[in-house]
Amino acid sequence: MTEKRIFITGGASGLGKAVALKFAREGFRVCIGDVNNDRGKETETELNTITSDAFYTYCDVTQIEDIEKVRAQLDDRWGGVDIVVNNAGVGGAAGALEEIGLDDWQWVLDINLMGVVRGCKTFIPVFKKQGGGHFVNIASAAGLLNAPFMSNYNVTKAGVISLSETLSSELDASNITTSVVCPAFFKTNLTESIRATNMGGIHKKVNKMMSQSKISAEDIADSIYEAYIKNEFWVVTHTLERRMWYFKRIVPQGFSALMKYQAKKLFK
Questions:
Q1: Is 225 a catalytic residue?
Q2: How does residue 41 score in pLDDT terms, banded at 50, 70 and 90?
Q3: Which of 97, 158, 217, 251 is close enough to 18 for a disulfide, judged by CB 3.0 to 4.6 Å?
Q4: Cα separation, 210 vs 94, whole angstroms
């Protein structure tokens, strides 16, 4: 067992909660940040039946002051933190690019991408001061494959991947490591935050793909823990999407043709 410390944004539900529970079972002290106080308190209670020290704090990742407040809380309570999981995210706005408003773009960029930027920027000095640390940045297979009608979600997740790759080399000399997590569909509450345009039935379609997935949030949390233990950068959890990613890299023209075909039939 360990006495290491972890902070997770968006930790009150979905993948964030699964990660919190996994690391709690491994003996970590756990802090979850979220904007849903009811879920946060419920998860805090559940965590405290597993680990010696867990707590919830309100944290809106669009507000740098909130993240800095958490940094101060962790310093006061634990003297620092060993792992920061930048997990908070939304489903974005589904639809053709010309139908998605700029306000929707700003909304998803501010949470999915800039939320991760703020989390890393806030905790890098902490990691440097204490001589090391580990970031887990939650991206998506969408950032690797860029399926049609998901432009703003794809862009944010591709940005998280790019940021993570940058930090992996930039912070290496400071003993700060990074993992980037790229799951595909799994059972979660992501559709609560999808803003659809006139593409009717998008929530129903996405919920169906999620419900049919054989991979759960708990499975992904297990993969994240294993990647941390082995100091692995890539966490691409779904076999089909991992193979598609390989196909894209090896046969880019073939992959492009496949995406064009999917765009013609998708959401008809």
A1: no
A2: very high
A3: 217
A4: 16
